[in-house]
Fold Lipoprotein signal peptidase.
Amino acid sequence: MTSSSEKAVTHERGFQLQNAHWLWLSAVLIVADQITKQLVVNNLALFDRIPVFDWLNLTLMHNTGAAFSIFAGATPWLFVALSVLVSVGILIWMRRHPHGERLVAASLALILGGALGNAIDRATRGYVIDFVDFHIQGWHYPAFNVADSAIVLGAILLGVDMLFGRNDPPVR
């Protein structure tokens, strides 16, 4: 009978099956992101608003930049290339990361799904569809979408793991 540490060694050269199942989370996020964006595009004109709560609107916006519209006006293919590079880096990280650290694997899957969800928009539309508009007393948080939420949540969870996760050396 083999232990989990022996399994990690066995699969060290190939993609670890224990982390590959987290790619389903990425796939579900991509599908949810694209469906919600298409629903908004089908039902709202650019800048139209549907109030949901006093502090939340659904508002169709086109983001030609990166997070919070920084670098707006840069070629969309720059962002697509960056998303692909980040995605490859995440896949390599997932492959090399110990399979027992679920928080890191889930975090990476969230970031991967978000990066690819927004990359699909950039490649097919030339911009990202944003539609969630939080606002308080005239101040509006930059509009975002499901993919952006996944990226932020994944980054926060990675930070939590770095601060509070176990510091055991990886199994070799």
Remarks:
- Helices lie at 4-10, 17-20, 23-43, 76-96, 102-125, 146-164.
- The radius of gyration is 19 Å.
